[in-house]
UniProtKB/TrEMBL annotation:
Co-factor note (free text): Binds 1 FAD per subunit.
GO molecular function, one term: DNA binding
Higher taxonomy: Bacteria, Pseudomonadati, Verrucomicrobiota, Opitutia, Puniceicoccales
Record carries keyword Lyase: yes
Coiled coil: none
Xref: Gene3D superfamilies: 1.25.40.80, DNA Cyclobutane Dipyrimidine Photolyase, subunit A, domain 3
Protein name: DNA photolyase
Length: 390
């Protein structure tokens, strides 16, 4: 269903474009099941790795719809940027999640309720069906994700961290920021005092009656508490490579669009690709997700793909590079990998530089409080897009 190529991503975008205006705003909450025409774009697996970057999607949408008609869809695309900016300025939230996840996975190894949930044997028909859909398609509609997470936390009373881990391992679009912070939001930890409680009548309505929901779902949200999130740090200033350096470009599965925008700012003489298989194994990401990302990287322009720091260093030496430039990684597994690469390259006097796309540079600093404040900055990026208006 989701092929790891640019042409598949562009085809899916073209097919969705006519519905990206008011139709999306009206229909987007309906989840009529995996075998019917979707009310949403289903572009997230490609957007996640920026095989389809946000600016390309928004430009295409504005070529067919007025900004007013497309505003709901553009807001949703920008929710992703908001979550990513929010976490980028509060990396300890991700680190805490990783620590808690590791401890809970140990504690819940033989927990019956947890095993039933991930095997789709809870007896709650809709939940078990979404679990199967997640395993079969590696994708769920947003509303199904909300209901699933709510039942996981508030009805089954399982730790949100294990639910977030289950999603991250199976979603093609699995993303440290969007996933962790959405689970925190359903749990009532992200927006204080606001939990998300799945209601049977809401599920019936927005699945067009596919589920009867006769099982009893919790009518009271669990009250979880923890210390408030840290204040946002400012984004680091990035060092630009000095003129005259011989640079190589490093492309990763985190931002496949970098092959297009990085050379505009710098002139790399060669390009390498790096796929961190070890890190996917450490997080126990399912083979479908790993293969989608590995193939998407492999199908992008450029030479072979490296998997160890040594291979990258040897390549940089062969190419007689002074430095390597790559897209700044967002919070997740890549900042750690980059630290490792930086140290190994530094031992050979090769510098590693990172660059931030103007989309992130413009929007991330606004993710200090809630989305509604952040949203006021969206016109700043829309102005920069070269759009032939609808
Ligand atoms: C518990 C939970 C976990 C989630 N985990 C992830 C995740 O790991 N990765 C992920 O990309 N999204 C996640 N989301 C957000 C959202 O569900 C998906 O982005 C969306 O369902 C993807 O489907 P689509 O491409 O058809 O979305 P559309 O509705 O067509 O939206 C277009 C694009 O906007 C972005 N987007 C839309 N809604 C959101 C949102 N609420 N938050 C962030 N970005 C959004 C996505 O990039 C999406 O592809 C999660 C939501 C919940 C409630």
């Amino acid at each position: 269903m989701f092929l790891p190529t640019k042409s598949a991503a562009c085809n899916a975008l073209s097919k969705f474009l006519p519905d990206a205006g008011l139709e999306y705003a009206v229909q987007r909450n309906y989840d009529n099941g995996p075998d019917t025409k979707a009310s949403v774009s289903k572009l997230s697996p490609w957007i996640r790795i920026r095989l389809l970057p946000e600016w390309e999607v928004v430009t295409a949408v504005l070529e067919q719809h007025s900004p007013a008609d497309a505003s709901k869809f553009i807001d949703e695309v920008c929710w992703r940027t908001y979550w990513k900016g929010w976490l980028q300025m509060r990396p300890s939230v991700w680190q805490n999640y990783l620590n808690e996840r590791a401890a809970l996975l140990e504690d819940f190894r033989s927990h019956v309720g947890y095993q039933r949930a991930i095997e789709g044997r809870t007896g709650i028909e809709c939940f078990d069906s979404w679990n199967q859909e997640l395993l079969d398609h590696n994708y769920l509609h947003n509303h199904a994700r909300m209901w699933y997470a709510s039942i996981w936390i508030h009805t089954l009373k399982l730790p949100w961290q294990l639910g977030a881990d289950w999603f991250l391992r199976h979603l093609l679009d699995g993303d440290p920021a969007s996933n962790t912070l959405s689970w925190r939001w359903v749990a009532g930890l992200q927006t204080r005092g606001k939990t998300y409680l799945a209601r049977p009548d809401n599920i019936r309505k927005y699945t067009s009656g596919r589920f009867r929901v006769e099982e009893s779902l919790s009518t009271e949200a669990l009250e979880l508490d923890e210390a408030p999130p840290p204040k946002p740090m400012s984004l680091p200033d990035l060092t630009h490579p000095q003129d005259g350096l011989k640079l190589g470009l490093l492309l990763t599965e985190e931002d496949l669009s970098a092959a297009e925008w990085l050379p505009e700012q710098n002139t790399p003489s060669s390009m390498a690709k790096y796929f961190p298989t070890d890190h996917y194994e450490a997080l126990d990401i399912c083979p479908e997700v790993v293969e989608f990302r590995r193939k998407a990287l492999g199908n992008s322009t450029g030479a072979g793909t490296f998997e160890t720091p040594r291979e990258l260093v040897e390549w940089a030496k062969r190419e007689q590079l002074d430095g390597i430039i790559t897209a700044e990684p967002t919070i997740g597994h890549w900042p750690e990998i980059l630290k490792l690469l930086k140290a190994e390259l530094a031992a050979e006097n090769i510098e590693l530089f990172t660059a931030r796309h103007w989309w992130d540079q413009t929007l991330f600093p606004h993710a200090t409080k809630g989305f509604f404040r952040f949203k006021k900055a969206i016109p700043k990026v829309l102005e920069k897009l070269a759009v032939q208006p609808a």
